[in-house]
Amino acid sequence: MRDNFDRMPYSIIDKQVTGIGVTTLELSSPRNSIVVVPTKSLANNKAFNFPNSRYIGSPIPGLQPRFNRRSIENYLRDSSIPHKKFIVVADSLPRLLDIIGEDRYDDFFLMIDETDMMQADSMFRPALEKLIDYYFLFNYKKRAGVSATIKDFSHPDLQTEPRITIRFIEPPRLHIDAIIETNNPNATLKQQIEILRNEFPDQKNVVAYNSITLIQGLVNWLPENLRTACAILCSENSKADAGEYYDELLPEDKLPKSINCITCAYFAGVDFNDDPI
């Protein structure tokens, strides 16, 4: 994206595929920005790569939380950082906007990352539903919503919002080594994990599985030497369900264990930047 733009255009952006640098473009742009993300893991992922940005949300290991009013006001006054960049978990946006002040909304560009994910989750998290109301407090040229999987919006005002679709002359292709049919997913996963650990002991594995209960069943089915190598990466709301296996991304987006089971909190927009063990 940075080869063609110096900042994000306004409107709803249907980027079609992930990993094309949309969020990076806005965080690198020559203007003040507020980038709203649906999960702490996604905020973590972005904040590490932009040291002059300020993360607003609940604490993340390895990141200084930027909660209090004084630190935010000091950041806003810091002339050594010409373009202020806030990376905000949706639940914390109201507090940030209160500190910035409504009269300064025009000083910032508001970008909502993974817009459709927020709409889908809004029935469970009221702060996400309220987020759309804040979106429309910004001038239409000072706001954007971005996703690779945009669906029809239920919010009537979003239905009339201008939309830009990014199309590729040569669309990126997803490489899939194998598709395995099974009526017993955990047994098949157990078998595949054991094969991969034996053949590639220096590599880390990621299991995308959107059920804490089924992940727990899978982990408990593994032999002891593999159970201790497991981590469950999920939302904070599911931390108690994950129990002793709960973990989070390490600094610089590193995976914490050899076998990393992730739920939907890590499905959208999160990049893993890892090396062999």
From TrEMBL:
Superkingdom to which the source organism belongs: Bacteria
Annotated InterPro entries: P-loop_NTPase
Protein name: Uncharacterized protein
Organism, scientific name: Rikenella microfusus
